[in-house]
């Protein structure tokens, strides 16, 4: 399990995708679908900022992704972020397959 402090996780995301959080890409560990905060906002999903790195967009959008969330009993994620309160939050992996190297 990878444990990252929030500031380190954010820095990694910014290095991969830039400072605009809407462009950060995450990959669902179940269906391997890639999603962004922008995708969640365009789909008009309520409270997208708390979901786009934690739950697959398929929970709300038909024929896109799957219904996986990291809040369930089965734990197939590889990374957790330690928030300012010291709590460990499971997160999807960054999708860096489309980032220029």
Structure description:
This is Dolichyl-diphosphooligosaccharide--protein glycosyltransferase subunit 2. It comes from Mesonia aestuariivivens. It is a single chain. By secondary structure, the protein is α+β, with helices and mostly antiparallel strands. It has one domain (2-94). The chain has helices at 6-17, 37-42, and strands at residues 2-5, 26-27, 34-35, 79-82, 88-91, 93-94. A hairpin with a 5-residue loop joins β4 and β5 (88-91). The radius of gyration is 13 Å and the shape is globular.
Secondary-structure element order, N to C:
EHEEHEEE
Q: Tell me the structural class.
A: alpha+beta
State the low-pLDDT regions, or none: none
**Biggest sheet statistics:** 3 strands, mixed
Name the beta content range. Answer: 15-25%
Roughly what percent helix? 10-25%
How far apart lie the N and C ends?
A: 25 Å
Alpha plus pi helix count: 2
Shape: globular
Overall pLDDT: 94
Number of domains: 1
Number of strands: 6
Calculate Rg over CA atoms.
Answer: 13 Å
List the strand order in the largest sheet: 1-4-5
Q: Can you summarize this structure?
A:
By secondary structure, the chain is of the alpha+beta class. 18% of the residues lie in helices and 18% in strands.
